[in-house]
Amino acid sequence: MKLVPQTKEHVVDIDGLIAAVTPKTKMICLINPNNPTGTYYTKEKFEKLLKTVPQEVVLVVDEAYFDFADAPDYPNGFDYRNMHPNMIICRTLSKAFGLSGIRLGYAISTPEIVDYMNRVREPFNTNLLAQVAGIAAFKDTDYLKNAIKVNKEGKEYLYKEFTRLGIEYLPTQGNFMLFKVGEAQTSGRDCYDYLLHKGVIVRPVANYGFPNWLRLSIGLKEQNETFIKYFEEFLKTVR
After folding, report:
1. Which CATH superfamily is domain 143-238 in?
2. Using CA of residue 213, residue 218, residue 220, residue 225, what is the dihedral sign?
3. What per-residue confidence (pLDDT) applies to 125?
């Protein structure tokens, strides 16, 4: 396995992926939007990859946060299946559909690739209740539209508050945000512990190479406001 580092802007490095392809390459895995940064690669970059990578290479595109992406140049994997037949597009109902507890997702690919996937999957890997819930969720378009609306309003509020507080953050195409707490290498953990004792749970991301950053899930209006209240309290203790 070969890992390609992200760009300095914390975006999946498409040019780096292209450069890393060799005659031995069997599969390329992408995440768009990326987790935990919330960043994305553009249509232009994705099309460059599709035109460059050999057709026999399997391309796995993880679009778990697809429903939240609103950038005009965000590439919808479904639109490019004819450009690269050996593509697997992965999505989930755990995010915008709010069904994380049933662990239900799906993949779109060719009959040939799905045949190989069926040969190695566990039997009864998706139970009947999860399947019924998934079908019902797909039909509930009002819920999906509202979830997307609430998320967009939430991230705009957090953008504004982080700017007011002088906090560096990464604009997101997901339902979460990565933000920099301070310069010290312990900043992320210190803030995490402070917020945890206030009943606010965020995610440390030192294991991703961001020891002084945190990942915040965008919540309801009152939840976002509660986070900002206690985060501002924490900043006053360290500034």
Report:
1. Aspartate Aminotransferase, domain 1 (3.90.1150.10)
2. positive
3. 86
